[in-house]
Design brief:
5% helix; 6-stranded mixed beta sheet; mainly beta; 2 domains; Immunoglobulin-like; globular; 47% strand; 432 residues; 29 strands; single chain
Length: 432
């Protein structure tokens, strides 16, 4: 089979299930085994994990500033936990076994309840043996809506991932093989974007929310059939919309676009072999009522500008194939230490700002994710740039970030290449 046989538009492959806002702000997610049509219709189905009978799980839409309660029922044969990625929530609701909760045992239910302070694009996924459970499908979009609707004709989510599978759709379940963990991670043989809608009209203005839910793959993306601007990164609105010069998404990162549709929209992953189609939006008819207008910024976020740092720390990424020796006892390490330890990477007083230099002394890129906070990326001159919760650091490079630790609790800090995380690239911070 060739690439064309494995990849098709969302109109052919189906769409994300969508769960509308409930007035009670109550949801229920069932973690369970599912059968999904990852390959094009007519090709083999895939036995995997998901929520509420689907993979990806249902799209949850909640309101900024309103409390939500989500019951997670575990119908799996093993324990699990759910992390609400990018939400600045209460620490006890973060979904990280060991640090914030006990594992949800088979047959048990846990209620997560939190108030999302930021509107934007987020997602949820397993945070227990996540290198395996996420690779098997335990993920879904989590959208926090603005106080007032944004002026678009359609608000569309596209969740991107890849899977290592046989040609008949059977998963190749070698999630922690040493070669993958020591290199670029467990990478799929098939990739796809799940769209929440299959068609738009020429002339529509749409909001397209891209979520990289892959366990390890970096997606360099190209978009055709529409023109527009980037309006948000990792769920946080940009102060000014930005041209779409380049789209590169590390695992767990999100990008929001406002686009004007000129024809069928195609989303490609760029590779050495050429464009690899992830999915598409077809067109039906023409929107004659939409008038041309500049793309405005989304409502401003409420995250304060960072103060002068009280600490300057270094987090050095070490190990992996073709990497130097380190003092940790796993394949990867931060600062000569592998995996979660009794002592945190650092402690901070609530409200304290710290500058952290992320140094990549390895032969592979790493997407570093901090739970419970967003941080500013700094440019080479030290100027504050974008607010993110996951930043991509390439081999033999470094990046400074500036974070105000204003959310008390024990928060994980790790590589979101989940193969690297299970291989040792995990630590935590304590905000007291």
């Amino acid at each position: 089979m060739n690439r064309r046989q494995f990849l098709a538009s969302a109109a052919v492959l189906g769409s994300l299930p969508r769960q509308l806002i409930a007035q009670t702000s109550m949801y229920r997610l069932r973690a369970e085994e599912v059968t999904s049509q990852v390959l094009p219709a007519g090709d083999g189905t895939t036995r995997m994990l998901g929520f509420n009978g689907t993979m990806p799980g249902p799209e949850l839409r909640i309101r900024r500033g309103e409390r939500v309660a989500i019951d997670v029922e575990n119908r799996l044969k093993e324990g699990t936990a759910v992390h609400w990625h990018g939400i600045r929530l209460e620490n006890s609701m973060d979904g990280v076994p060991v640090l914030t909760q006990k594992v949800i045992d088979p047959g048990d239910t846990k209620t997560y309840s939190f108030v999302p302070p930021d509107a934007g694009t987020f997602w949820y996924h397993s945070h227990h043996i996540s290198h395996e459970q996420v690779a098997r499908g335990m993920m879904g979009p989590l959208i926090v809506e603005e106080d007032e609707p944004i002026d678009v004709d359609h608000d569309i989510t596209a969740l991107l991932s890849d899977w290592r599978m046989e040609r008949d759709g059977t998963l190749i379940e070698e999630y922690a093989d040493r070669h993958s963990v020591a290199h670029a991670g467990y990478l799929g043989t098939f990739a796809r974007a799940f769209f929440s809608r299959s068609e738009v009209s020429v002339g529509d203005r749409i909001r397209l929310r891209l979520i990289n839910a892959a366990t390890n793959r970096i997606f360099p993306l190209a978009l055709s059939g529409a023109a527009g601007r980037i309006v948000a990164l990792d769920g946080i609105a940009l102060s000014q919309p930005r041209p779409i010069d380049q789209l590169m998404m590390a695992p767990a990162q999100r990008v929001d676009l406002i686009l004007d549709v000129s024809g069928p929209i195609k989303l490609d992953m760029m590779s050495r072999q050429g464009p690899y189609e992830l999915g598409a939006l077809g067109t039906a008819g023409t929107n004659d009522t939409r008038q041309p207008a500049p793309i405005a910024a989304l409502p401003a976020h409420a995250i304060a500008a960072a103060a002068d740092p009280g600490q300057h720390l270094t987090l050095r990424m070490m190990g992996g194939a073709m990497g130097g020796r380190h003092g940790g006892d796993n394949i990867w390490a931060f600062n000569d230490v592998s995996d979660l330890q009794a002592a945190p990477f650092s402690s901070f007083k609530t409200g304290e700002t710290a500058k952290i230099t992320l140094v990549n002394d390895t032969s592979f890129p790493h997407g570093i994710h901090l739970h419970g906070h967003h941080f500013y990326e700094l440019d080479e001159e030290g100027n504050t740039g974008d607010l993110r919760d996951t930043t991509l650091v390439f081999p033999n490079q470094s990046r400074d970030i500036l974070c105000t630790f204003d959310n008390p609790g024990k928060w994980m800090l790790h590589c979101h290449m989940l193969s690297h995380a299970v291989g040792g690239m995990r630590t935590w911070v304590d905000v007291v």
